[in-house]
Write a structure and sequence with these properties.
single chain, 176 residues, mainly alpha
Length: 176
């Protein structure tokens, strides 16, 4: 929290947008505060979009978040997914994670569990604990992949080792 707050205090546009992102849903130990999130986003969204259009990868991802969560832009799942896809295809970890979520939920794209798994796997292999959890869930349920309890446990274990409590709970519930 301190590092992000310090970066915002130094006037970083992307840091300010990140602060809006964490407050919009109460991420990373920050309190959820929709009014603050919207205010922060509105103060920098034009600069974030210019940076994204210039190809700055973190700004591309943050534009996806802006459209996904209504931060400085009207909520638009299709545009959110387009921005997240651009980030994901350039190897942005959270872009990959969010694109997987979009396919899993059919938000901005037609639901496709197999494509959700493809994008979550890319993020999971790079250490994203939530994507690892999602892969474990997919293997346990046979959603987008053949059901495989051993692969489910592998991904749950990786996520739990990274500190994901939901994965630790999933391991405890796993039969055998």
């Amino acid at each position: 929290q301190a590092l992000l707050s310090a970066a915002v205090a130094d006037g970083g546009v992307l840091s300010t947008m990140w602060l809006a992102r964490v407050h919009s849903r109460g991420r990373m130990g920050f309190e959820e505060d929709q009014a603050l999130a919207r205010s922060l986003a509105e103060s920098v969204i034009g600069e974030v979009q210019r940076a994204a259009e210039a190809g700055q990868l973190e700004a591309v991802f943050l534009m996806g978040t802006a459209y996904d969560e209504g931060l400085g832009r009207e909520e638009d799942p299709v545009l959110a997914t387009e921005w997240h896809r651009r980030a994901a295809e350039e190897d942005h970890l959270l872009g990959q994670h969010n694109l997987g979520n979009a396919y899993a939920g059919g938000r901005g794209v037609e639901a496709d569990d197999s494509l959700a798994v493809v994008w979550w796997r890319r993020a999971a292999e790079r250490g994203d604990a939530v994507a690892q959890l999602r892969l474990g869930e997919a293997y346990r349920a046979g959603r987008g992949v053949p059901r495989d309890d051993s692969l489910a446990m592998l991904w749950f274990t990786r996520a739990a080792e990274a500190g994901n409590q939901a994965a630790a709970t999933a391991i405890a519930r796993q039969p055998g």
